[in-house]
Structure formats: structure tokens, C-alpha cells
Write a structure and sequence with these properties.
It is built from two helices and two strands; from the N terminus they run ααββ. It is mainly alpha-helical. The chain has two domains: 13-58; 61-95.
Length: 95
């Protein structure tokens, strides 16, 4: 039951409604903040993964000497394709 208000009394019911609305807004913003925080951590890890992959794919030597690394990688590729191949049921399978 809503109490009747006279001229001298303060407005109690609207202040409770405003207070409840404020609590609800704080709750909603807190929930949104938690969701954004969870998503931002996942996006940060995703970006960190690609940064690591990019760093791993960079050549180890400076540009004038990168030819030596390409020669090494070519020899390594030929080695894997020819010398380390095994026979498995009549098919040649590389390791």
C-alpha cells in the first residue's frame, strides 16, 4: 500500500524508484564491463599469437646475408624429401 503524502512530507516513493534505477544501471554497466573485459583478453591473445607467428617467420639473418638462410632451408627441404623418406606399404612417405 502506498502511503499518502501530505504537503510537509518529503517524496519518499520517487526517491526509492530513482535509487532502484541507479542500482539497476550500475548492475547493467558492470555486466557489460565484464563481457567487454573477457572479449578484450581473448582478442589480445589472438593478436599476440599472430605477432609471435610473424616474429617466428622472420629471417634470422640481416637482408644481405639472407641468401645463406635460403640456401640452408633449400638443402633442408631437399634432405626431408629425399634422404629421410621411408617406404610404407609401397608408397614413399616423408617424415
Amino acid at each position: 500500500m502506498i502511503p499518502s503524502l501530505t504537503v510537509g512530507q518529503t517524496d519518499v516513493i520517487p526517491s526509492l524508484t530513482v535509487g532502484q534505477t541507479g542500482v539497476n544501471l550500475i548492475f547493467c554497466f558492470s555486466h557489460v564491463f565484464d563481457e567487454v573485459q573477457k572479449n578484450s583478453i581473448q582478442i589480445w591473445k589472438y593478436g599476440l599469437y599472430f605477432l609471435t607467428v610473424e616474429y617466428d617467420n622472420k629471417p634470422a639473418l640481416a637482408p644481405p646475408f639472407i641468401i645463406f638462410e635460403h640456401i640452408y632451408l633449400s638443402i633442408k627441404w631437399v634432405w626431408k624429401r629425399t634422404c629421410r623418406a621411408e617406404k610404407y606399404n609401397g608408397k614413399q612417405v616423408s617424415i
